[in-house]
Amino acid sequence: MIRVLLVLSCPGRIGRQLAGEADIEVRHRTPETWGDVVTALDEFAPSVVVLDRDVLGTGDVTAVTGAARPPAVVLLAGAYHPGDVVLAAKAGVRGYVVDSGGSPWVAVVRAVAAGGGWLAPVAVGELLDEVRTREPHRLREPPRIPLTERELSVVRLVAQGCSNLEVAAELGLSQSTVKTHVSRMLARLDLRSRTQLAAFARDLGIV
C-alpha cells in the first residue's frame, strides 16, 4: 500500500485521481507550518508526501526529507521558480511538479514511491546546467554493480515481475535460496522493497 499525504491548500483534484487506485491510501493536511507537516508525518507515516511549494516555500523541506523515516517528497508549484529544482534536489526531494491541471499524479506517486523521481520539463534544463557547471567536460566511469552473477540473474527476473517461486523454477534454485538472495541485495543496496530493487535494475540497464 502506498500511503500518500497531500499537504495542499486545494487537494481535491489530485486526491480524486489517487483515490481511484486500490493500492493508494490518501490523507490530506492543510499547509500552515513545517511543524504541522512533521506532526502529520508522525501520525500517518506516509511513503509519499506532496507539499504545496507556493504556500510552504522550500526553506525547511529538510524537516521532511531528514525525518527518521523520510517519505519521498514531491513539491507542487503553480509556476516554476528559477533555482527551485537545484535547491530541492540538494534537500533530497524526489519530485518537482508544475501543475496546470494535467499532471498524471498516479504516475508521479508510483515513480517516487518506487525510488525514482519526477521532474517538470521546465526544471530539467536547469538541473542539467547545474551538473555541467559543477563538473565540466568530465566523463564518469560506468557505475560498478555490486552484485554477483547469480544475484544479477535473480534481479533480472525480479525486475520482470517474477515471484520467488517463478525465479526459483527458472534458475533451478529453492525458494528459500531466492529469498535469501533478494534479502541480501536489498540490505547491500539500502533498498526497502522488491519494487525499488526492480527500479534499481532498470536504472542501471541490468534489464
Automatic annotation (TrEMBL):
Superkingdom as given in the UniProt entry: Bacteria
Alphabetical GO biological process terms: regulation of DNA-templated transcription
Cell cycle recorded as keyword: no
Single Gene Ontology MF annotation: DNA binding
Pfam family of the protein (one): GerE
Keywords: DNA-binding, Transcription, Transcription regulation
Gene3D superfamilies named in the record: 3.40.50.2300
InterPro entries xref list: Sig_transdc_resp-reg_C-effctor, Tscrpt_reg_LuxR_C
Residue span, HTH luxR-type domain: 140-205
PANTHER family assigned: DNA-BINDING TRANSCRIPTIONAL ACTIVATOR DEVR_DOSR
Protein name (Swiss-Prot/TrEMBL): DNA-binding response regulator, NarL/FixJ family, contains REC and HTH domains
Organism of origin: Amycolatopsis tolypomycina
